[in-house]
Amino acid sequence: MSRPAQSRYQHRAGANCESACLRNALAAQGLALEEEVVFGLDGNIGFALFEREGPEPDLVVGRQTIFPGQALRLLGCSVQAQQRTPLSRLRQWLAQGEVVVARVDLAALPHHATLEGASAPFGGYFVNLCGQLPPLNSDGEGEFLVSDPACAELLRVPVDQVQQARLSSACPPINPNGWCYVLGGGAQAPALERLGPAALAQSAREMLRPALKQQGCSGLLQLQRRVAQWPELKRGTLPPPPGSPGLPRWPALTWQLRALGSAIELWGTGGGLFRPLWTRFIERVAQALPDPALNAAATHIARSAQAWQHMGQTCLSLTPSSSAEALRHTLNEVQRLLSLLIPEERLALEHLAQADVRARRQHLAGGPP
Question: 271-295 as b/e, with b when 16 or more CB fall inside 10 Å?
Fold first, then answer.
């Protein structure tokens, strides 16, 4: 009889919280994959802008859907998904040796108070629960072993703090809502020459023709317009992020720009709003299925990734005491970089659609799949 997945679990840090958690959970079941493959097969790269009224910062997200599950389906892996999972069920899964992929508000995890830029509430973050420890006394609930992709080591976190992070309501519209996932068996190594182009084309379609105007390429244009309005919209001051040094209250515009930088560089994206991770997946597919369109797409997304990273780092250089001139310079730089990366992304998406059409034609003609 094979050992339960939990007993084979090895913690590894990663670029993106969700794909790294899935990579680690799959590895515990015997399927070793690079993180960019898990990420890319989800067909979920994208963009979304969540505007907020008043001085509260607008939110930027670089994926279209939280936990779409497509990568698991393509790998032949079943999954149990449960919303508002009770604590008793979590304990039962862990007692059975399962690894539980848990969605949380990262700001409610105690160790994130010490990680730069990771203190603002965000309910689309993921960690793996891979064990439980008994309480030290009759009054406690014990601890969970938490595998957080942002950390170098496995963590011991009190159960009540994990529960607070799982059930947080501090980050609408992206609250974690107690979602948990347990992977079934049967996952197999993917045929990237067949599955890769289709997954890439799905991302291209959702970016080029999004369901909502604040998503995809139209969402990028909306962000460009919104940035020009921030000096008028994001006025006044806000309480500082928990654990942040500096003034008792932050200027709202500074908070907004720092939040943009954190969303791009620090909130589990691997830097560059997932674009470097996606570039690596495109390059992996191009190795499995040589196509000039795939190589061109990788080049354009790599340029976009550089612009995103520069934007994020520029925003994160601001402090609560930054001058009005520094704020104006940062706003201008964000606008300039958006004007560079938007056409790069559109060109990349068009190349990905072309590569998928050619791959389908080859398959129908009996050539390489």
Answer: bbbbbbbbbbbbbbbbebbebebbe
Contact 29, 5 (CB under 8 A): yes
pTM for this model (two decimals): 0.87
Q: How far apart are CA 162 and CA 337, in angstroms?
A: 38
Residues 175 and 271 in one domain: no
Q: For residues 93 and 223, state if they share a domain.
A: no
What's the confidence (pLDDT) of residue 136?
60
pLDDT bin (cut points 50, 70, 90) of residue 267 is: confident
**Which residues sit opposite 79 in a β-bridge?**
183
Q: d(Cα 110, Cα 54) in Å, to the nearest integer?
A: 28
Question: Rounded distance, CA 216 to CA 204, Å?
Answer: 9
Look up the domain containing 96 and give its range. Answer: 81-179
Overall average pLDDT of the 324-334 stretch: 96
Q: CA torsion angle for 208, 214, 220, 225 (degrees, to 10)?
A: 140
Could you give the number of structural domains in the chain? Answer: 2
Judge if 133 and 218 occupy the same domain. Answer: no
